[in-house]
């Protein structure tokens, strides 16, 4: 059992007067971690303490901050297996996936450590005796509020980028993965000056208290509803708000593709991490010409997955994060079936402990069903048959979200139309996942705003000071 401690003002074990929360293993319901809950007063004190060391960290040489981040990445690397084990124990994903998430996080820390010190601003020559330059500066105090679905990778991105650009950071990890957040904070803190990183634990009320504080940036990765509450808080406090939120990513399957390969892609997109990925495939628009072969192959893939606890080698489909979330997933499936859709695989609540949910394929879905329009965040593949690629694109574009979308097509002209016409932050052609290392993403509409990844995140956590220099008395230098 992990016993989590908070880090406030450089002191481990501070606060926690708000009570205690216990996380249960989603595979069997056994208790995994206990974590303190911060009070609003502790949150306020943590922000005040962070503000107190902000100027010193901001004044550190960029190369020194980068060296500290490299040492922090070394410490995370040394704790990598513990972090992966904690992730799997707290949120259930297969251990190899958890290891992959930790490795991705370490890679991001190192990438930011390399990129940050070489950043510069523009220089303009207004005249022979005048010069303007733009100097990036840290924004100050950053609140980073993170989710549970890939806790190390997501947190390393936000924390690494904010710290290396000279900000002090208060991290509030998800209440579903507090031990993972604590192990990460311990590793990072071991390489940083005291007080530069703080860790506050607890639920949404702690996140709300933090985002209502006098901070300079609130960076939130999580659900759209939470993102909107944070945006409202930011409108009151004046903090910059960076939101990487939910999605309902479409997959459009064109008439000219191999239905077996398309089903393989769909299965990966829908069932990896039990569908609990922000850019998971949430709805499928398949051309009528290939729909039968595609759906049959997808059903076969869903039924072939090895289901079990994430810690068992060979598990391909772990449990959902908890039963509350499983109820949400099953509720959407049940509503779609009540409205006329048909279950081809899965779709029933299994007996036994834990929060398992089977890989589910539902055919006969319509574009207006909640299962199709809303984020499900579970291992569910709703299939909508369309009569043309244009209809598929039209449906794909019609969404309150704007995170990412995939098209599978052999037609260059359809691929070109897809990236031009889909109003999302990322368009993928012929692969549901992937993308070059360091790739950035800028979601739209209900999915948030601002860059959440990539070198551009360094800019999000920086502000720019414009300096105009002129020779005195209109003379010469
Ligand atoms: P969530 O928004 O419920 O929780 C995320 C964090 O916000 C947690 O730390 C939580 O305690 C905190 N929080 C909750 N209510 C709050 C409030 N009122 N004010 C401030 N903070 C609050 O999301 P989740 O369930 O942990 O994560 C799943 C969601 O995250 C999905 O919608 C998924 O799509 C999204 N997600 C998006 C991305 C992306 O890059 N776009 C990446 C991963 C996950």
Question: How would you summarize this macromolecular structure in one to three sentences?
Answer:
By secondary structure, this protein is α/β, with parallel strands linked by helices. The protein has helices spanning 40-59, 62-78, 80-91, 95-115, 151-164, 178-189, 204-211, 224-237, 259-271, 288-304, 323-338, 370-373, 389-397, 412-421, 456-460; strands at 2-3, 7-8, 11-12, 20-24, 31-36, 123-127, 130-138, 141-145, 168-172, 197-199, 217-221, 240-244, 249-253, 281-287, 342-345, 360-363, 380-386, 401-402, 404-408, 426-429, 444-445, 448-449, 462-470.
Give an account of the 3D structure.
- The chain is an alpha/beta fold.
- It folds into two domains: 2-245 and 447-466, Aldehyde Dehydrogenase, Chain A, domain 1, CATH 3.40.605; 249-429, Aldehyde Dehydrogenase, Chain A, domain 2.
- The protein has helices at 40-59, 62-78, 80-91, 95-115, 151-164, 178-189, 204-211, 224-237, 259-271, 288-304, 323-338, 370-373, 389-397, 412-421, 456-460; strands spanning 2-3, 7-8, 11-12, 20-24, 31-36, 123-127, 130-138, 141-145, 168-172, 197-199, 217-221, 240-244, 249-253, 281-287, 342-345, 360-363, 380-386, 401-402, 404-408, 426-429, 444-445, 448-449, 462-470.
- The strands form six sheets. Strands 15-16-17-14-13-19-20 form a seven-stranded mixed sheet, with helices on both faces. A six-stranded mixed sheet has the order 10-9-8-11-12-22, with helices on both faces.
- Strand 2 (7-8) and strand 3 form a beta hairpin.
- It starts with a strand and ends in a 7-residue tail after the last strand.
- Residues 145-149, 154, 172, 174-175, 203-204, 207-208, 211, 221-223, 226, 229-230, 244-247, 278, 375, 377, 403, 443, 452 line the site of nicotinamide-adenine-dinucleotide.
- The site of nicotinamide-adenine-dinucleotide has 30 residues, from helix 7 and helix 8.
